[in-house]
Amino acid sequence: MPTWLEIESNHIAYIEAGSAENPPLLLLHGIMSHKGVWARTMDVLKDRFHCIAIDQLGFGESDKPKDKDYSIAKQAERALQVADHFGFKRFTLMGHSMGGQVAAYLAAKTAPQRVQKLISIAGVVTGELSAWAQNFTRQTVAIGAKIPDLYTASLSLSKRSRAFSYFVFRPWFHDIHGVPYDLWALDRQMAFNREIAFTTPKAWDSLNATDLTPVLKDIPAPTLILFGNQDGTVPVKQAHLFKKELPTADLVLLDQCGHFPMYEKFDEYIQFLQAFLKY
Q1: β-pairing verdict for 115-121 and 91-96
Q2: Which of 76, 85, 120, 257 is placed for a possible disulfide with 265 were both Cys, Cβ 3.0 to 4.6 Å?
Q3: What is the percent of the chain with per-residue pLDDT over 90, rounded to a whole number?
Q4: In what order do the strands lie in the sheet with 24-28?
Q5: What is the pTM of this model?
């Protein structure tokens, strides 16, 4: 069950695993996603780390005020405030997709001295997404901001029709039929949550507008870049760009894997995380 903390007078939902005596690990989800994407990862890492996964403001079970700043820079600032709340002086930071973009911004610009290690899972670098994500999903989100009932209708249809879900979410996985349907049920629900109708477009605008290329070289923390080689949401060339701009980073590409390696290739994914985290 989630608990909440208060950041800038808003409630931020989070889940926690591992002893507070362990080294801290802060985990950030992607756009239209939620903290639960990290549940299995945290279950493995909790013996060695104090894991905190949050719902970023505007998503999941956190507050979703319409008038707030949902920029990448501001979300990085809020993530740092979460670290402050838990007394994390230095911490390992892991982000997925937009969360990877937020994490890299924090590690390069917001507080580079605070990030002990950085892990970017399918992290956005230039703000560029795949044609499907940008032209279909982004435009659907734009319509949903004007007609929030579209989210409700989409959620209802996804519960009745696997074919509809497979069509809408096909960029998420290399082999969408090979991933147990129930495994990502909560992810579908969160993506179709009508409460994010007004926050997602703002976050997406900033995602598109934020190009990290000029600042990646400023990241001092040891960094792991992990991508699925068949990512249909964030072009894999962004992984190579990240490595080019930060040559000291470790780059891992998982074959026959899409945008969610924590679902599609968990065993390989977790082995690389453990090796990078040195246990």
Answers
A1: parallel
A2: 257
A3: 91
A4: 3-7, 10-17, 50-54, 24-28, 91-96, 115-121, 223-228, 250-254
A5: 0.97
